[in-house]
Write a structure and sequence with these properties.
The complex is a heterotrimer of chains A (316), B (302) and C (557). Chain A is of the alpha+beta class and 316 residues long. Helix content of chain A is 44%, strand content 10%. Chain A has 14 helices and 7 strands. Chain A is globular. Among the domains of chain C are: 104 residues, Flavocytochrome C3, Chain A, domain 1 (Alpha-Beta Complex); 99 residues, Fumarate reductase/succinate dehydrogenase flavoprotein-like, C-terminal domain (Methane Monooxygenase Hydroxylase, Chain G, domain 1, Up-down Bundle). Chain C has 16 helices and 25 strands. Chain C has a 5-stranded parallel sheet, sandwiched between helices. A 5-stranded mixed sheet of chain C has the order 19-17-12-24-25. Chain C starts with a strand and ends in a 13-residue tail after the last strand. Classes of the chains: A alpha+beta (316), B alpha/beta (302), C alpha/beta (557). At the A-C interface, helix 1 and helix 4 of A face helix 3, helix 4 and helix 10 of C.
Chain lengths: 316, 302, 557
């Protein structure tokens, strides 16, 4: 028998949340949802949580279990218990709580709606579109998303910036950018390159890590960054990445100073003055000019070979 | 223990104290290193944003160089670790891709056969130098140091790539801190993001994240933080002032590089470890250590 | 009080298509859905959607396979409509963005499916239902269609002989409200939760079917319940037929490929009813593994192919049964999966109550007769969802709104009040578990007179027990206990026509397999049952099967 703690809160009634505890047997094979069901059906029918398919395909049951968000229906309880010595179930993070384990998904959906999550095609052919498998496969990192919210719940960028569109919305966005049948790629990339879009991802990898259906939102965001730069779309993030890249091509190593300079510009550098001043005082100033690595010619050869490859139309 | 040492860029530039302290502890602990002086930047995720394929082939060049030496690669930066691990895995898993990369490397007289492993110094210290060995080497009493670890996102995630520590309950750093005789501090932020990747895009959000982690560490008793990534170090140390401004709170938390912490423990002086370079003074750390030293000296009475 | 032209009850694949079509036809449409649309069980459909799109394939071939698969109970004119419309449906979904799997040249892939003589199931990996549902939902977002999400419809309002609205319960705050409209399309999908072993979601409680029945609609062919042969032993999660389509082979505990005995030509890809009976027979005759399951062997496909073509099978198998299908066979057993029966509709989704339409799994046109072939359900949702949406919009046009209906709202209010007030009664879940056991044991894969008669009685007894249940939760907010009590009423109302229809039909046909009447009896039983509810009685009438060009023959594979 083990004590399972479950978060209880009704913001209309309670001033703050509390945890209820129940003793339940946790045999191998029992999922967290199984335990919640036992509580709800036979111990405390007032416990509220969403669930439906119990097979990790509908996305209803996302919640935080021992601190990590996932689906309660496919999370085995015993391994968590064995590892941590306790079992605690809480609602998703980064979203308001409506009651107990039921989160308000409105902010989640709003971000998804914001990216215009539907195909914007040109003139359709008579029959099905002809799209080679290789091209259709590009959608694979994003197309299976069940919109459960686990990624948004763990997103560190969203935690610091509630206006950040977040991994699910951006993965959905990528699904259309990468779809050859969608003709709005350029407009989409422009839109997503603005504030709170693709450049606001801090690459913390939480989304890739927690997605219960193995979608890779961060990979999708990175792919959109590359496409947006290729398309010449200007943004602060793009400027920084390009500056970084150019210094490496020049000398083989990063030139911190030049990168900061190029990406921030004069005004930007001025705003960094307080940092810069102290950096100089401590003697931590990065090299203004970087010595080229010995093999810089080899680097340049590889750059050319890569360009040639790209011109031939080789995909990613 | 012999490794091809990949120093990274920041670790030899604005955070060159990282490179210095790494070499000092490597020598002391018998980790033989051959520096890959000609290696390029790993891309740090930013080159990947511009041209992913190019960054992969440049990393393959680095792997080939290490393979030629018959050595695995040692990194001292969480970001280098992830970016190289990712590229390496892609090459190992996809023979077609590896063949394509090798066609390009052939033009510069190199070839990568997919045999190199890339290891962060944290894992090498715990797994190969060994905690017991480290414990025996400790010469300085660090028991007054409550050390908050900061792994850096890309060292512990994604779990399916690195395979060393449980991304939800990472332990390597805490075990190391304990073996060095200091006290590890448990707090949520040790797994979180320092904010560096978005410092130049959304400094506000970056500093909020940054401040939150450090304040939480302090609230859990930390009087020093140690990090395994120089990019995190930039945000935590260089930008600590900005974090204080964003949060309206005084932080003043000294931030050490992991090798500096190790160096302190095994008796290398703070001066040699270049701890004076940090923007947030490391004096409190030095003082705590000195106090212990002095307390240990028996008082002579005549 | 909410007012619209057309209400769509249920936001799954059928509902989304009905809504979009009605909206594009100019109606003011609103979806009333117990779940957020993407949570609908449509997403669980895995393997594929059939169409005679490939060169050399014909809609007639698709139709014949479907009709034969239905054991000749399907209405053939309806099937013709389905299979004629199928190729356009696939193209339409592709044009709307569904990421169908393709070959290297960019043409749509198809795979063989049970009971189809030709490979014609188009798919998106093994998450075809998810892909189609996402596309349908995306279009709802694009069109900005009004959505009342997490509102559970409880009763239809019929006045002056036609539909005038419905009452729905808002899960988030327990409020009941009336929705007025001139037409509705019921698309509430499955209702298999009255069975102990089911692949259905916990929320699949046949709400629309029960509401329609109570409002005077006939339910057709309810005795025809499909048991999917390959559910994961234990949690009964669906292992898609596509696993067999890709070459998976079933074996009993002796290692025998037992389907050689039961279906020498189609083997493991025989229609579902035949395979489910085969497995059940192996179990009953002691050749299965202890616990009552057999093996589905995919090991010879190799890990790469499994990961590529059947990633969901891989996921389910590893996550829920700790089995890597590339290394070990998957333990599978039959479970309730689909109900061929449903709200009786014509080819435009119209029921016998003017203004009430139905489409998708909850409807019975009849397309699937006594047994449904895999790949036809997703197709039905699209083709008939659109037809019903079109028809409902046309019906609503130019009709006045029937006023009133507050008596129904008041009655629902009282009912909810009583449920909430009741103290010390039985637990809703216990009654539900008993119902599930009764139905599984007595109206399952193999049926007989005595068992089914006892089921009919048992359901009556359970209904009496239901009148004394306590919900045990007083709060109005997200009171799932109350919702479950309301769902149980629906399950009980549905179980009666299932048990009764099964008892009455003295033959074996398709999925309805009786050990006491083992033969198909076209002379007496080539007809549909229609179940009507009057008070607390179910009455059954009959309707002939519509035959166009395919004379019923013996069904062997």
């Amino acid at each position: 028998m083990t004590a399972i703690k479950v978060y209880r809160f009704d913001p209309d009634v309670d001033t703050e949340p509390h945890y209820d505890e129940w003793d339940l047997p946790v045999e191998p094979g029992r999922t967290v949802l199984d335990l919640l069901h036992e509580i709800h059906y036979f111990r405390d029918p007032t416990l509220s949580f969403r669930r439906s398919c119990r097979s990790a395909i509908c996305g209803s049951c996302a919640m935080s279990m021992n601190g990590r968000t996932g689906l309660s229906c496919n999370t085995q309880a015993k391994p968590l218990l064995d590892r941590d010595g306790y079992l605690v179930v809480e609602p998703m993070k980064n979203l308001p709580v409506l009651k107990d384990l039921v989160s308000d998904m409105e902010p989640f959906w709003k971000a998804v709606y914001d990216v215009e999550p539907y195909l914007q095609p040109g003139k359709a052919p008579k029959g099905p579109y002809i799209v080679p498998k290789k091209r259709m496969d590009l959608l694979k990192i994003a197309q299976d998303c069940i919109m459960c919210g686990s990624c948004l719940s763990e997103c560190t960028s969203r935690e610091a910036n509630p206006d950040y569109l977040g991994p699910a919305a951006l993965a959905k966005a990528y699904r259309f950018v990468a779809d050859d049948r969608d003709e709005a790629s350029l407009d989409r990339l422009r839109q997503y390159s603005e504030a709170n879009g693709i450049w606001d991802c801090d690459t913390c990898l939480y989304c890739n890590e927690v997605c219960p259906v193995h979608v890779k939102p961060m990979d999708a965001i990175m792919a959109m960054r590359e496409r947006s730069i290729e398309a010449g779309i200007v943004s602060q993030g793009a400027k920084h990445a390009i500056a970084f890249y150019e210094t490496v091509l020049r000398s083989g190593k990063l030139n911190e100073f030049a990168t900061a300079n190029k990406s921030l510009g004069l005004a930007g550098m001025a705003s960094q003055a307080s940092v810069a001043a102290r950096v100089i005082l401590r003697g931590k100033t990065p090299e203004l000019r970087k010595k080229k690595i010995k093999g810089i010619a080899d680097v340049q050869t590889l750059v050319e070979l890569n360009e040639r490859r790209k011109r031939k139309g080789a995909g990613r | 223990m012999k490794y091809a040492y990949f120093p990274g860029c920041v670790g030899q530039d604005s955070c060159s104290e990282l490179d210095t302290s790494t070499k000092l502890i490597a020598e002391e602990l018998g980790i033989e290193i051959v520096e890959l002086e000609d290696a390029t930047c790993c891309g740090a995720g930013f080159m990947q944003d511009v041209d992913y394929d190019l960054s992969r082939v440049l990393n393959a060049r680095t792997f080939a160089m290490a393979e030629k030496l018959g050595l695995d690669i040692l990194t001292v930066c969480s970001t280098c670790q992830f970016n190289m691990d990712r590229a390496n895995r892609e090459l190992k898993d996809d023979p077609e891709r590896l063949a394509e990369v090798n066609r390009m490397l052939a033009e510069i007289g190199l070839r990568y056969n997919g045999t190199v492993e890339i290891k962060h110094i944290l894992w090498v210290l715990v797994n190969e130098v060994g905690l017991g060995n480290l414990r025996r080497r400790v010469k300085v009493d660090l028991s007054e140091l409550n050390v908050a670890s900061f792994y850096g996102c890309q060292l512990i995630r994604p779990g399916y790539l690195h395979g060393y520590d449980d991304p939800d309950r990472p332990e390597y750093f805490e075990k190391l801190i304990d073996a060095l005789g200091a006290r590890p501090v448990d707090y949520e932020g040790r797994k979180k993001c320092c904010g560096f990747p978005i410092t130049f895009v959304n400094e506000d959000a970056s500093m909020r994240m940054n401040a939150k982690n450090m304040i939480e560490a302090q609230e859990h008793g930390a009087n020093v933080m140690a990090t395994s990534c120089p990019l995190c170090h930039i945000n935590l140390d260089m930008y600590q002032g900005r974090a204080e401004k964003a949060s309206g709170r005084r932080i003043e938390l000294p931030i050490l590089h992991l090798p500096q912490l190790v160096g302190l423990a095994i008796g290398i002086s703070p001066e040699r470890l270049r701890m004076k370079r940090h923007l947030v003074s490391t004096k409190p750390v030095v003082e705590r250590v000195k106090r212990k030293e002095e307390a240990a000296i028996p008082v002579r009475t005549t | 009080m909410q007012r619209h032209d057309v209400l769509i009850v249920g936001g799954g694949l059928a509902g989304a298509h009905a809504a979009r079509t009605a909206h594009l036809a100019g109606a003011d449409v609103a979806i009333v859905s117990k779940l957020s649309p993407l949570r609908s069980h449509s997403v669980a459909a895995a393997g594929g959607i059939n169409a005679a799109l490939a060169e050399g394939d014909t809609w007639e071939g698709h139709a014949f396979d479907t009709i034969k698969g239905s054991d000749y109970l399907a209405d053939q004119d309806s099937v013709e409509i389905l299979t004629r419309a199928a190729p356009d449906a696939i193209v339409e979904m592709d044009h709307l963005g569904t990421p169908f799997s393709r070959d290297e040249q960019g043409k749509l892939f198809n795979r063989p499916f049970g009971g189809m003589r030709q490979a014609r199931a188009y798919f998106a990996g093994d998450r075809t239902g998810l892909a189609l549902m996402q596309t349908a939902w995306e279009q709802l977002v694009k069109e900005g269609i009004t959505l009342y999400e997490e509102w559970a419809a409880t009763s239809l309002i019929v006045e002056e002989g036609r539909f005038s609205g419905l009452v729905a319960y808002r899960v988030s705050n327990g409020a009941l409200d009336e929705f007025q409209a001139r037409a509705c399309v019921i698309c509430t999908g499955p209702g298999g939760q009255m069975y102990e072993k089911t692949t259905n979601a916990v929320t699949c409680t046949g709400d629309g079917l029960a509401m329609a029945l109570r409002a005077g609609c006939a339910l057709k062919d309810m005795e025809f319940v499909q048991f999917h042969p390959t559910s994961l032993h234990g949690p009964n999660i669906l292992i898609t037929e596509a696993a067999r389509g890709e070459g998976g082979i079933m074996r009993n505990a002796k290692g025998e490929r037992f389907m050689e005995k039961y279906s020498p030509k189609m083997l493991d890809l025989a229609p579902r009813d035949i395979v489910s009976r085969a497995i059940t027979t192996e179990v009953l005759e002691g050749r299965a593994f202890p616990g009552g399951y057999v093996h589905l062997d995919l090991t010879h496909l190799g890990k790469d192919r499994i990961r590529e073509r059947l990633p969901e099978v891989y996921q389910f198998s590893t996550e829920f049964a700790d089995v890597d299908p590339g290394e070990k066979p998957i333990p599978i057993e039959p479970a309730q999966h689909y109900i061929m029966g449903g709200i009786a509709t014509d080819n435009d989704g119209a029921t016998n109550v003017p203004g009430v339409y139905a489409a998708g799994e909850c409807a019975c046109v009849s397309l699937h007769g006594a047994n449904r072939l895999g790949g036809n359900a997703l197709l039905e949702c699209i083709v008939f969802g659109e037809r019903a949406g079109q028809a409902a919009a046309a019906f609503a046009r130019g009709k006045g709104q029937v006023a009133g209906g507050t008596t129904v709202l008041a009655a629902e209010d009282r009912r909810v009040d009583e449920l909430m007030k009741a103290e010390g009664g039985e637990s809703v879940e216990r009654v539900r578990q008993d119902l599930k056991r009764v139905m599984w044991e007595n109206v399952g894969v193999f049926r007989n007179e005595a068992d089914m008669a006892s089921a009919v009685e048992a359901v009556r007894a359970l209904k009496r027990r239901y009148s004394n249940v306590s919900v045990g939760a007083r709060e109005k907010k997200f009171n799932y206990a109350l919702l479950e009590a309301m769902e149980l009423r629906n399950l009980l109302d549905l179980s009666a026509p299932i048990a009764l229809g099964a008892l009455m039909r003295r033959e074996s046909r398709g999925a309805h397999a009786r050990t006491d009447h083992t033969a198909r009896d076209d002379a007496n039983w080539l007809k549909h049952t229609l179940a009507w509810q009057y008070g607390d009685r179910i009455e059954v009438t009959f309707e002939p099967v519509r035959i166009t060009r395919w004379e019923p023959k013996e069904r062997t594979y």
